[in-house]
Amino acid sequence: MGRCTMMQLMVFAILFVGATKRAESRLDSSFDKRRRSLLANGLGLTPQMGTADALVSTGLAKLGYKYVNLDDCWGNYNRTPEGNLLGNEITFPSGIKALADYVHSKGLKLGIYSSAGFRTCSNRMPGSLGYEEKDAKTFASWGVDYLKYDNCYTDGSNVTKRFPAMSRALRKVDHPIFYSLCEWGWAEPALWGNMFGNSWRTTTDINDTWISIMWNIDENEKYAKYAKPGGWNDPDMLEIGNGGMTKDEYIVHFSLWAISKAPLIIGCDVRNMSKETYEILTNAEVIAINQDSIGVQVRKVKKEGDLEVWAGPLCEERRVVLLLNRADKGSSPMTAHWKDIGIPSGTVVEARDVWKHKTLKEKLTGKITATVAAHSCKLFVLKPIH
Ligand SMILES: *[C@@H]1O[C@H](CO)[C@@H](O)[C@H](O)[C@H]1NC(C)=O
Ligand SMILES: *[C@@H]1O[C@H](CO)[C@@H](O)[C@H](O)[C@H]1NC(C)=O
Ligand SMILES: *[C@@H]1O[C@H](CO)[C@@H](O)[C@H](O)[C@H]1NC(C)=O
């Protein structure tokens, strides 16, 4: 659902180049075919990254957080007599176009919000159902770069009709607009969303609890194979910095979202982040995993009770592996074997601990082992040595 927090600043990131031969050949066979099933607006080649204000002064923008997103409640209660949406005149006295110009002047991009219904979820402003073309034109004329499209106050018709209608309208305007579908995973949007949008929510709304992040990321994982450059699974925005979880739990949250190629949209007040929050959100090595050019969402490859191994490929023949201890108490030694991670047996690798920012001294053959505390994880990037 839309939230009535006003400014969710967001951000796009750097597209990494340099997929290796192996990665390319793996993709070659299906890549063109996969591209053809995508929304043809050229956006979302890596997952979108975002947050709330002060992106430039904090340095977050430089790391890739480039979208400044308004969520629900940005508009007036009613349309104008001509039937147009209008920014709330008290909150945005200069209008949304002026806001977009300002955001662009900072090198950032502006996102906006609407609903595939008669009203938005807050019921404080009109939705876009039946007004798709008019509203898409309005957004484009303001220079808006991103639309989150919610699913409240509908006419009861199928989401597979209402969400594509806005997609067609956005493609008719001459300004590219990233299209973020938010129907909460009801109609399995991973199965059809990539033809119409750049990302689709796979789950119910997130909240600032361990239960919520575990629930959402598990649901999201079921659709891993549908994520690819141009279209991403979206388990909802980040709760890091909102105070409901421990530092270790927030590190798990950021790690799982990063490896799942989820949007990184900051949901805390970035004008007033603690050092701990800042260190998590600005971990460039973890962000690089999220923005990796081959765009493969990591899978859960092994589960023994509360102990899980998540692993998947990165560019340049590297692999990312997450050792996750979901237990409420106690530390556990954990091991992931090359066969779990998808590394050919006999391969010698160098392991980088991306939270410690250290490369392990010993080279590894066959497995990686670590002790993982309760509600914590270890995250490694493994690079083969030839
Ligand atoms: C919506 O449409 C999809 C695809 O056409 C169909 O599989 C699904 O059953 C429909 N859902 C409802 C609630 O009508
Ligand atoms: C938080 O999310 C969990 C998992 O989806 C849900 O069970 C719980 O009711 C939510 N809590 C609130 C306060 O919304
Ligand atoms: C900044 O954060 C601290 C603690 O996280 C809080 O006590 C304080 O009220 C916040 N300040 C503002 C201006 O929001």
From TrEMBL:
The keyword Hydrolase applies. GO terms for molecular function: alpha-galactosidase activity. The keyword Hydrolase applies. This is Alpha-galactosidase. InterPro entries: Aldolase_TIM, GH, Glyco_hydro_27, Glyco_hydro_b, Melibiase_C. Residues 1-25 form the signal peptide. The gene is LOC109707804. Coiled coil: none annotated. GO terms for cellular component: plant-type cell wall.
